[in-house]
Specification:
It is a single chain. α8 packs antiparallel against α9. This protein has 20 helices and two strands. The protein is mainly alpha-helical and 415 residues long.
């Protein structure tokens, strides 16, 4: 399998380089005009406009990064060849900027405002399709729990921001891909209860590679986290099979290998092609994004404050009093369900797996602590994994027949 992975990795890197170089071969006038119009619109709107939900930061747009993306559409040094432009990216060389493979062609017929509008239809269509896939592979409750989780992440504003779209769209596409490639009963040996893992590990590796190709460090853990949750639930609910912890951990390791390996490949290629030490720049940024500024003078990391900030973002735009009421109601309902309506027989191992995967965003936050602290207003969206995972856990441990019987009894008393 490792030889196959190496071939896949090399093929992906070659494809990324060729694809990016191809879209930078020419800069037609319509593309340049639409990019400039987009930059003018962003200047008019400001870097972080707050149009929704009482002007709270959890639903503000990231026009600052959209501006960065549009600026990379227009190469500064027109004397550079397409390969040099694709690798240099106007000095922002440590990222792949793979979104340009989609953005530059889109800017030929459409302007920035039109792309936003079209994106609304695409994102909601993908959400509906993903919900149908979850309903098919798990059940309708899981489908609606997923819907609730993405709505907690202010999904409604995501399509209006190119920056936010990348990972949210990749998550939805990963769900659709997993349905075709991984939710396959032929991978499960019913005689000795073992799961063929090669396809899963390759899928995880490729997903990690595509993630870093497209992303500018928003919510990279989101696609793999949701896919792993759905796979664990799918195989247990459909076939009463518990994916081993070793398989789950290895899936995340293979994802990490694809993510880190592809990112490192960009640093090496950019260093060689652009004759600049991009590798050193990247390592300095890694230190900064994990621990704060190199000299410790600003953006000092407080991990507890950072975790608290990300969690609180889920409850915006509610005020302080409303947050207390909502959290109290959720806690009370959970306590009632756990102590009064809990199932007699619960697979504790399955529950532990769900909870551990649900906590993956917080492991990511702790690693990328500075980034998750400074940008908590969008990194909080990784907690879609947490809301969905813990929500399904509560659904699983609750005996809903007891709940229905109790409700019927109360209604009879009222009559």
């Amino acid at each position: 399998m490792y030889k196959k992975l190496l071939k896949i990795f090399i093929s992906l890197i070659v494809f990324y380089v060729i694809a990016l170089s191809a879209v930078y071969l020419v800069t037609p006038t319509p593309l340049e005009r639409h990019a400039q119009n987009g930059l003018a619109l962003i200047k008019k709107e400001s870097n972080y406009p707050k149009y929704f939900f009482n002007n709270n930061v959890a639903s503000q747009l990231d026009n600052f990064t959209d501006r960065v993306m549009l600026e990379r559409v227009l190469p500064k040094n027109i004397d550079d060849n397409a390969l040099e432009q694709a690798m240099f990216m106007n000095g922002y060389s440590r990222y792949w900027h793979g979104y340009q493979v989609i953005l530059r062609p889109l800017l030929l017929p459409f302007n920035y405002f039109e792309i936003r509008y079209i994106n609304i239809f695409i994102m909601f269509a993908l959400l509906i399709k993903a919900m149908n896939v979850i309903k098919k592979n798990v059940n309708s409750i899981a489908s609606w729990l997923f819907f609730a989780a993405v709505m907690c992440a202010k999904f409604i504003i995501v399509p209006v921001s190119l920056q936010f779209t990348n990972m949210m769209m990749l998550m939805l596409l990963a769900i659709l891909a997993a349905d075709k490639l991984l939710c396959n009963r032929n991978d499960l040996n019913f005689n000795n209860k073992t799961l063929s893992t090669e396809r899963l590990f390759i899928f995880s590796f490729v997903l990690g590679s595509i993630t870093v190709f497209l992303d500018l460090l928003t919510t990279p853990i989101l696609p793999i986290g949701i896919v792993m949750l759905l796979l664990v639930i799918h195989y247990y609910q459909k076939y009463n099979y518990l994916i081993p912890n070793k398989t789950i951990i290895n899936s995340f390791i293979f994802w990490s290998a694809g993510y880190v390996g592809t990112w490192a490949a960009k640093w090496i290629l950019a260093t060689v092609i652009c004759s600049q030490n991009i590798i050193l720049q990247a390592f300095n940024q890694i230190i900064h994004r994990t621990n704060g500024n190199l000299d410790g003078s600003s953006h000092a990391v407080n991990r507890l404050s950072m975790l608290s900030s990300n969690i609180k973002m889920l409850l915006q735009p509610f005020g302080h009093t409303s947050k207390i009421i909502i959290v109290s109601l959720v806690v009370i309902i959970c306590i009632i369900l756990l102590y009064k309506f809990r199932k007699t027989i619960i697979d504790r191992i399955f529950v532990k797996k769900l909870i551990l995967i649900s906590l993956i965003p917080y492991f990511w936050y702790i690693i990328a602590a500075n980034h998750s602290q400074v940008h908590s207003w969008f990194t909080y969206r990784s907690q879609i994994i947490t809301v969905f995972g813990l929500g399904y856990t509560m659904y699983y441990v609750t005996d809903w027949q007891k709940v229905k019987s109790s409700m019927k009894g109360k209604f009879k008393c009222l009559k």
